[in-house]
Amino acid sequence: VRTLREKLRYLAKEGQPEEWAATLCAEWMQANPKAASILYIDGHVRVYHGEQTQLPRHYVSREKLCLRATVDYWVNAMDGQPFLYVNKAVDPGLLQVLEGEIVPRLEKEVPGQPLTPQLEADPLLPRFTLIFDREGYSPDFMKRMKEKRIACITYHKHPGEDWATSEFSTQVLCTVAGNLQEVKLAERGTLLPNRIWVREVRRLTENGHQTAILSTDYHTDLRGIAAEISDRWCQEN
Length: 237
What we know:
Layout lengths: L1 H10 L5 H15 L1 H4 L1 E10 L9 E4 L4 E13 L4 E7 L5 H16 L6 H6 L6 E4 L7 H9 L2 E6 L13 E6 L5 E12 L5 E8 L5 E6 L6 H9 L2 H4 L1
Parallel strand pairs: 1-5, 5-6
Antiparallel strand pairs: 1-3, 2-3, 3-4, 6-10, 7-8, 8-9, 9-10
C-alpha cells in the first residue's frame, strides 16, 4: 500500500488524485461519448473499521446491522467505466446528492451533449440520461430534470395493478456486452401525481412478476429502455 501511495502521488502531480482521476475519466468519456450519454447512479455503504473518528451509523444490508460507515455515490457509464463519485459521511439521501452535487457537475462535464439548435428543434431530445434504482423515485425530481432536458429512467415505486398478459409481446434485447436476450415487454403512457406524462415499460418474468420501469426518454424504443436499466448490473459488478 505504501508503494501504491507513492506512485499515486507521483502520477497525480503533487498529491492531487481527485484532479488526476477527473482527467482520466474525461478522457474515457471523450473516447466513447455514446456510452457517456447514459449514466448509472448508485449509492454504496462503506463500513469504517478504524478508530480515528466517530462516524455516524448507516444500515448495512449485507450484515443487517447499523455500523459506522460513509456512503459513496458512484456514477458510471453504460460499459461500467467510472465517471465520478461523491463521498458522504452524513448521508442526505440519493435525491439530494443527485440534484445538489452530481447533476450540476454532469451538466458541465458530460461530452457530446446536443447543441442549443438541436434542443430547440426537438423539444423531446435529452442532453443525457440518468438511470437509478427505486431510492431515487420522485415524480417531482423527474419533472425538474425534464425541465433541464435530462432524461430519467427508474423503477416505479407504486406500480399498481398488473397489466393484462395479452399486452406483452416477445422482444429481443441487446445488452451492453452484445448478448441477445428474449423478454416479454409492454408499454403504456402514465400520468404521475404531479401531472408529468412519462413512459411506463413493464417486463413480464417467467414467474408472472411484472417489473415496472418509468422513463422520460421519449426517443429510445421500449427494448432500449429495458436493456439500459437491465445493464445497470454492470455498475454493481
